[in-house]
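haha ok so turns out i had the wrong file open the whole time. this is the CORRECT one, sorry everyone. sequence first:
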Amino acid sequence: MPAPREPPAEAGPFAALDPLPPGDLVAVGGSLDPALVLSAYRHGVFPWGRSGRNRLWWSPDPRALLPLGGLRLSRRMRRTLCDRRWSVTLDADFEAVVDGCARGRPEGTWIDPPLKACFLALHRLGHAHSLEVRWEGQLAGGVYGVSVGALFAAESMFHRRRDASKVALAHLDRVLCAGGYEGLDVQFETPHLSRLGAYAVPRAEYLARLAAWRGRPARFGPLG
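then structure:
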């Protein structure tokens, strides 16, 4: 995986949205050019779904974070993590993780072909990363997201076996802590994430933290 290329200057349509408009949906339209999408993440905005042909851009208020180094794992889950039939890799099969996140969702998926192509491009540029979880050598789950300085913005995760997504988050936490990351963005607080320790902060606070995090270096991997 190459070193990430330098992000574009802090300019463009998302820099111009200062302050962001009220509400979670902050912009409609535009392209999925990788430079534009990376700029969106650097300003607390991400693409999610479409309305007709128009791409939708979101910045939730409040915003959910997971505490690095502070995941709440049950005793059973800690025992599960010790099972050597699990194995974990980084950036070994990014496309398979994106595909796993896109498939098998009863409500449908927002990961359409243009969005997938954009994330694959960001991965090639060194900005998007994946963590793969395998059970006895077979892909069982994973998570992918975008690095923005010392922030990791988790996009989506999936599982094909019980506990695989929790195994992925537990190892992601370890990787990010070891790599010097300071924030793990999970976008929206859900009951599942709350049980693991996720908490919500006002968007203004998130953006203030992001402004500091995006200027600090961090490294995704390797596993120690």
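Strands lie at 25-28, 46-51, 54-58, 63-66, 86-90, 128-135, 138-148, 151-159, 183-187, 199-201.
again sry for the mixup
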